[in-house]
Design brief:
Blueprint (H helix, E strand, L loop, with lengths): L8 H9 L5 H9 L10 H6 L7 H9 L3 E3 L6 H7 L4 H9 L4 H13 L1 E3 L1 H9 L3 H15 L8
Parallel strand pairs: 1-2
Length: 152
C-alpha cells in the first residue's frame, strides 16, 4: 500500500520550468544516468523544497525533463500507441526491474517528446509497482485496439 503524494506534480513541473532551478540544475537532472543519481543533485532539493526525498521523488525528477505538463493530455499508454511505439518496447518497461524499467521509460519519453498530465503521471510514478506498469500496458492496448470512430 502506498502513501499519498505530499505534493502536486503539475506544480513540481512548473517549478522545473521556473527560476527555482537554474540551467545547470536542469541540465544535471537531464544528464543523470539513473534515478538514484538524483540524490546527489541540488536540483532535486530545489524541486522538492523541505521534503525528505526518496525513491518516488527520484523517479519523478529523473523523468520530469522529458515531458511538458498539460492537464488535458491523454494517458502515456494511449500516447505511446498513437505514436506507433512498438509493443515490445512498452512491454520491456513493464517486465523490467528497477532501475531498468524507469530508464527504459525515459527512453520512450525522449522519443515521444510530448506533454503529460503530470498530476496523473506523477501519481503513477509515485506508486510505481506492478499495478502501475499494468496500467501503462492496459492504456496502451486499449488505445491501440480501440475501433476508430464510426467503425465497428
Amino acid at each position: 500500500m502506498s502513501m499519498d503524494m505530499p505534493f502536486d506534480c503539475g506544480r513540481v513541473r512548473a517549478r522545473f520550468d521556473s527560476d527555482a532551478l537554474n540551467n545547470g540544475d536542469r541540465a544535471a537532472l537531464r544528464h543523470a544516468a539513473k534515478p538514484s543519481d538524483m540524490e546527489l543533485l541540488p536540483g532535486l532539493y530545489r524541486l522538492f523544497p523541505g521534503l525528505d526525498t526518496g525513491e518516488p521523488h527520484h523517479r519523478i525528477a529523473y523523468l520530469l525533463p522529458y515531458a511538458r505538463h498539460d492537464a488535458n493530455a491523454k494517458p502515456l499508454g494511449a500516447q505511446l500507441a498513437a505514436a506507433k511505439i512498438s509493443e515490445t518496447r512498452v512491454l520491456l518497461v513493464a517486465r523490467s526491474d528497477s532501475p531498468t524499467d524507469i530508464e527504459q521509460l525515459r527512453r520512450l519519453l525522449r522519443q515521444l517528446d510530448t506533454a503529460l498530465d503530470w498530476k496523473a503521471f506523477g501519481k503513477l510514478l509515485w506508486d510505481w509497482d506492478e499495478f502501475s506498469k499494468r496500467k501503462l500496458v492496459k492504456d496502451y492496448y486499449l488505445a491501440k485496439f480501440s475501433p476508430a470512430k464510426g467503425a465497428e
